[in-house]
C-alpha cells in the first residue's frame, strides 16, 4: 500500500524531492564535452544525465537530394547501467525496442520544428542522445540538451561561412508534468513518475508555441481544468529551460 504523502504548510502534498509543485529539478548544461562532435553537451536534470552530440554530414537522405533542403534527425539510447539494474544493450538483441524508436522519432521531429531546413542547406545533422543516468524525464532532457548540441553545430557552420543565415528559428525544449498525489506538478522524477495518476510531456519553442503534447492517464482520469494547470506549469518550466539553453550557448 502506497503511504499517504505528507503535506506542507500550504496544504499541498509533499513531493519526494521536497520541491515546490512548480519547481524544476536543478539544471546543469556543460558544453564541449566531446572532442570530435561538431556540437556536444552533458545535460543534467536532477539525477537524469544525458550526453548529447550533434554530427554534421554534407549529404542528405535520398528523398531530399537536389531539393536544397537539409535534415535534422536523432538517435536515442540508454546505457546498460543507467538504471537501478543493468539492462541488456539493444545491439546485442539485434534491434531497437519500440520505446527507443518512439523516443528518437520524438526528439527528431521536435528539433526539426525549430529549424529552417532551406537555410540549413543540403546537409544533415544527427543528434545522438545517450542516457548515462536515468531518474525520469530522459526524453525531455534529450530534447532540451539536443537543441544545445544542435545550436553549437550550427554556430560552427556559420563561423566557417558555410551558411549565410541562421537556420535555427527558435529554441526547442521539453518538460514533463503530471498529477501526483492529486495535484499538478512540474518535472516529474522517477519516484513521482512511477506513482503519478496522470503523466505528460510538453515540447515547446522558446516563444511558447507547442510542438507536441503527450498526455495519458496512468490510473486516474483528468479534467480540462487540470490539463490547463499542467499547461501553465509546462510553460513556466520550458521558459526556465530555454533560459538555461541560451546561457549555455552564449
TrEMBL record:
Chain's role: Phosphorolytic 3'-5' exoribonuclease that plays an important role in tRNA 3'-end maturation. Removes nucleotide residues following the 3'-CCA terminus of tRNAs; can also add nucleotides to the ends of RNA molecules by using nucleoside diphosphates as substrates, but this may not be physiologically important. Probably plays a role in initiation of 16S rRNA degradation (leading to ribosome degradation) during starvation.
Family: Belongs to the RNase PH family.
Residue ranges constituting the Exoribonuclease phosphorolytic domain according to the UniProt record: 23-153, 170-237
Keyword vocabulary terms for this entry: Nucleotidyltransferase, RNA-binding, rRNA processing, Transferase, tRNA processing, tRNA-binding
SUPFAM superfamilies, sorted: Ribonuclease PH domain 2-like (SSF55666), Ribosomal protein S5 domain 2-like (SSF54211)
PROSITE patterns (UniProt xref): RIBONUCLEASE_PH
Source organism per UniProt: Maritimibacter alkaliphilus HTCC2654
Protein name, entry field: Ribonuclease PH
Claim: tRNA-binding is one of the keywords in the record: yes
Entries under InterPro entries matching the protein: ExoRNase_PH_dom1 (IPR001247), ExoRNase_PH_dom2 (IPR015847), ExoRNase_PH_dom2_sf (IPR036345), PNPase/RNase_PH_dom_sf (IPR027408), Ribosomal_Su5_D2-typ_SF (IPR020568), RNase_PH (IPR050080), RNase_PH_bac-type (IPR002381), RNase_PH_CS (IPR018336)
Residue numbers binding phosphate: 99, 137-139
EC number: 2.7.7.56
EC primary class: transferase
Listed GO MF terms: 3'-5'-RNA exonuclease activity; tRNA binding; tRNA nucleotidyltransferase activity
HAMAP family per the UniProt record, alphabetical: RNase_PH
One Pfam family hit: RNase_PH
Amino acid at each position: 500500500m502506497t503511504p499517504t504523502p505528507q503535506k506542507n504548510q500550504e496544504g499541498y502534498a509533499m513531493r519526494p524531492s521536497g520541491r515546490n509543485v512548480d519547481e524544476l529539478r536543478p539544471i546543469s548544461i556543460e558544453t564541449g564535452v566531446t572532442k570530435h562532435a561538431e556540437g556536444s553537451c552533458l545535460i543534467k536534470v536532477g539525477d537524469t544525465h544525458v550526453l548529447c552530440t550533434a554530427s554534421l554530414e554534407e549529404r542528405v537522405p535520398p528523398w531530399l537530394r537536389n531539393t536544397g533542403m537539409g535534415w535534422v534527425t536523432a538517435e536515442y539510447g540508454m546505457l546498460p547501467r543507467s538504471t537501478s539494474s543493468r539492462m541488456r544493450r539493444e545491439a546485442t538483441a539485434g534491434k531497437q525496442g519500440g520505446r527507443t524508436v518512439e523516443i528518437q522519432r520524438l526528439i527528431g521531429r521536435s528539433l526539426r520544428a525549430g529549424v529552417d531546413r532551406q537555410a540549413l542547406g543540403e546537409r544533415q545533422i544527427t543528434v545522438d542522445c545517450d542516457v548515462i543516468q536515468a531518474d525520469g524525464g530522459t526524453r525531455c532532457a534529450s530534447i532540451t540538451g539536443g537543441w544545445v548540441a544542435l545550436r553549437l553545430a550550427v554556430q560552427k557552420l556559420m563561423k566557417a561561412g558555410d551558411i549565410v543565415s541562421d537556420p535555427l528559428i527558435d529554441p526547442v525544449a521539453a518538460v514533463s508534468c503530471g498529477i501526483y498525489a492529486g495535484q499538478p506538478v512540474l518535472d516529474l522524477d522517477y519516484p513521482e513518475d512511477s506513482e503519478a495518476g496522470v503523466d505528460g510531456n510538453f515540447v515547446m519553442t522558446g516563444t511558447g508555441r507547442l510542438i507536441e503534447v503527450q498526455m495519458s492517464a496512468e490510473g486516474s482520469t483528468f479534467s480540462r481544468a487540470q490539463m490547463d494547470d499542467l499547461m501553465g506549469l509546462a510553460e513556466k518550466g520550458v521558459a526556465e529551460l530555454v533560459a538555461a539553453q541560451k546561457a549555455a550557448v552564449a
